[in-house]
Amino acid sequence: MVLIDTHSHLFAEEFNSDRIDVLKKAEEVGVKYHVMPNVDSSTTEHLLKVSRDFSHCFPLMGLHPTSVKNDFEKEILHVEEMLTHSKFYGIGEIGIDLYWDKTHFEQQKIAFRHQLRLAKKYNLPAVIHSRNSFDEIFEIVDEEIDSTLKGVFHCFTGSVEQYRHIQEYKTFKVGIGGVVTYKNGGIGNILHEISLNNILLETDSPYLSPVPVRGKRNESYNLIYIAIRVAEIYGLSIEDIATQTFINSQELFNLPIE
Ligand SMILES: [Zn+2]
User: Fold this and answer.
1) Residue 68 domain boundaries
2) What is the distance in A from the centroid of ligand 1 to the CA of 218?
3) How far is ligand 1, taken at its centre, from the CA of residue 9, in Å?
4) Cα–Cα distances in angstroms (integers) from residue 107 to residues 6, 42, 61, 136, 196, in the given order
5) Which of 38, 83, 156, 202 would staple 7 via disulfide (CB 3.0–4.6 Å)?
6) What is the structure's pLDDT at 186?
7) Against a cut of 0.85, is the pTM above it?
């Protein structure tokens, strides 16, 4: 059984002391590949170092909405420059976050739209972070969507209606993470309405740990708890879930793996 953690910040300093052990432990339960979304220019160097050190960890390039400040134009230039220099497997993570801080809402919208256009230009999937902001994100994606724009709404915790909106784009999937294991996480209650062809599995390490390790540092090993819960909901074996989500992930990221 092979699983892909499609959203892990394995390059974060939380893993500096035991990154090799974290990867080994993940592999024991079949989590062999890792997709790593960038945060901003301060994390790029380490992101690239980790992807060089571990050939099964694949980097994305993008500016995270919570890193959009007054200097966002400089940050966007950095993203553009990096895209011309190195190989990346997607644009991420990008989006709008109105939970932590609304101060730079206008700048967040500009940065998001601009990076969606980069995704189209480079024919790469967009990894979208949405927090208290589905309407604002839909407004922009509705305008930018065309046959070349594809991607994933990472850590999807929306409603059935919001899922239907995403489904109408035809080229977007939803990332299912630790929240699916929470008793009142919501997404666990509507997952059966979501086609298995449209989901990816992710941890969002080091954040959002699933039950039964909630509250601790999250790591890719815990993807197994998410896969087990997803298998329960669909009434399928965990191997079936692994096989289908592997195909889904590859459809989007096209990683150079078997
Ligand atoms: Zn993330």
Assistant:
1) 3-253
2) 12
3) 6
4) 27, 19, 18, 13, 35
5) 202
6) 81
7) yes
